[in-house]
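Pilot study result, target chain (264 residues):
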Amino acid sequence: MNYRSWSIINKMRIFNFLSKKVGDLTLKYSNLPESYVKRSYEQVYWKTPKGHPQYTDAQVARKSYRFTTYRPWTVQFARQNERGTRRKKVFIEPIGEWSFFKGDRVEIMVGRDKGKQGIVMQVIQERNWVIVEGLNTNLRVVGKDKDFPGIVVQSEAPLLVTTDVKLVDPESLKATEIEWRYTEDGEKVRVSKSSSRIIPIPKSAEETIDYKSKMLYIENPDKDTVADDAAKITFSPKLQTFEMDVMESMGIKEDRVPAKSYWY
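Predicted structure:
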């Protein structure tokens, strides 16, 4: 092959390498990048000053934080993780497939509200928590000082999805275990083990900062890829690699003979 063919192949290899980094780039350069979240809560006590290459880069920083219902970039999170405070390590049970979403009807299985049903208003998947509207509440005093007695506020406490709550069966209206199955159309759904009824994912689970529902979203041509362009099929599968496909479309022929290899 000539020099032009080799340069094309090298460019394709670089493209394949960069394509694998798309996920990392999404975390780094999204609307709320991971670097900003980390920088907003990290506590660095000391680090090597800049402009001194003779010293090894090092820093002394806090390693463990207590993550709660407050997001890491909020003032409340900073107060809970003030410098000098140390909290007991929290162990999170790994969940293979998350099954609780905002808007689900659940039944509480523990505590003074045991047996009551409510709607999930917030999901904190990092701690296996859900917050149920109006249930499992606590009273706390806000704004208390020397001259003001403060205001009593009622707030919901989080519940563990592994032991504290269960989804409600749409047929019997009782708590039930669920499992994920596939329909005849290939759609993945939640199914009640007690009645085999499908428990649909609520529409409120689709809410984002940009839209209330995917169907109601209005495309912005200045920043969005048009749905028709995104759904257009531009690739036809073949029994050859990406490099071989490009070489065929550009009329580049491979005339090298591969060396024989033996398997024992």
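One observation from the pilot: DSSP finds six helices and 13 strands in the chain. A full batch analysis is planned for the follow-on phase.
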